[in-house]
Amino acid sequence: MLGGTAAVAVGAAGGLIAGRAVAADLTLPVSAISRSILPGTVTKGMMSFGAGGPPPTLRLLRDRPFSIDVVNDLDEATSVHWHGLRIANAMDGVPYLTQRPIAAGESFRYTLTPPDAGTYWYHPHCNTLDQMARGLTGVLVVEDDEDAGFDQDLPLNIRDFRLGEDGQFIELFKARNAARGGTLGTVSTVNWEVTPIYDLPAGSLVRLRLAVTDVTRIGTYDLDGGTAKVIALDANPLRQPVAPRGIVVAPG
Ligand SMILES: [Cu+2]
């Protein structure tokens, strides 16, 4: 009885009452899906935000409230943490600490007012390693008021999946690796593709946003065949841009 009462109270604080009057800016379903990652195979037991494909890149405006109804279509509890955003604690997505877990079939309204522009990401905070390993990691961009003047903005969600040759998940984490460098995935992807190719207009000014949403892999990145500068790291602008060579990007 007490537990049920508390759940109702938190649900109301999270926006159920407001939700009756006003629709959220975005509805973000969380669901189990099947999807081809390795060519010629279909991986079962994946999880994603949105409809069927990789998690969408969310775009928010600095200092503007943005409401997201997370609808849990999984058969287990979840919550969403907006990694790196300086937002109200109640919206931080940590189960039992800032909110009740979003039970299967339930929803929760997050209202985010990000004070800083930059590249961030989002992921669940329930059964975290498992849900993230199955696909629940997405890129979140906070735009500044001022148009930075790029012709194109291309987020790259960089992560591994731990798949066998048949494309099915293998043991997601091994205890013995926890005391070492972590359990690495077997298939490296960008935006859930093994070898993605993006066509960009010749001579255009493109902003690449590299978000390593993997839990283990530390990568070193170079950019060849174009003129480029690294203008920000860890969501913060650099005082002096640096050359895009040997840039180390770690999980998160
Ligand atoms: Cu995080």
How is this structure best described in words?
With 252 residues, the chain is mainly beta. It folds into two domains: 2-146, Immunoglobulin-like; 153-249, Cupredoxins -  blue copper proteins (Immunoglobulin-like, Sandwich). Helices cover 12% and strands 35% of the residues. It has helices at 2-21, 128-133, 175-178, and strands at 26-35, 43-49, 58-61, 66-72, 80-83, 107-112, 118-124, 138-143, 152-161, 187-190, 206-212, 219-221, 230-233, 236-242, 247-249. The strands form five sheets. Strands 2-1-4-6 form a four-stranded mixed sheet. The protein has a four-stranded mixed sheet with strand order 3-8-7-5. 27% of the residues are buried. Copper (II) ion (CU) is lined by residues 81, 83, 123, 252. Copper (II) ion is lined by residues 81, 83, 123, 252.
CATH superfamily of the largest domain: Cupredoxins -  blue copper proteins
Q: So, CATH architecture of the largest domain?
A: Sandwich
Provide the number of structural domains: 2
Overall strand count: 15
Ligands bound, unique: copper (II) ion
- Uncertain stretches: 1-19
Shape: globular
Q: How are the strands of the largest sheet arranged?
A: 2-1-4-6
Strand content: 35-45%
The CA-CA distance between the termini, in Å, is 39 Å
What's the Cα radius of gyration?
19 Å
CATH class of the largest domain: Mainly Beta
Major β-sheet profile:
4 strands, mixed
Average pLDDT taken over every residue: 91
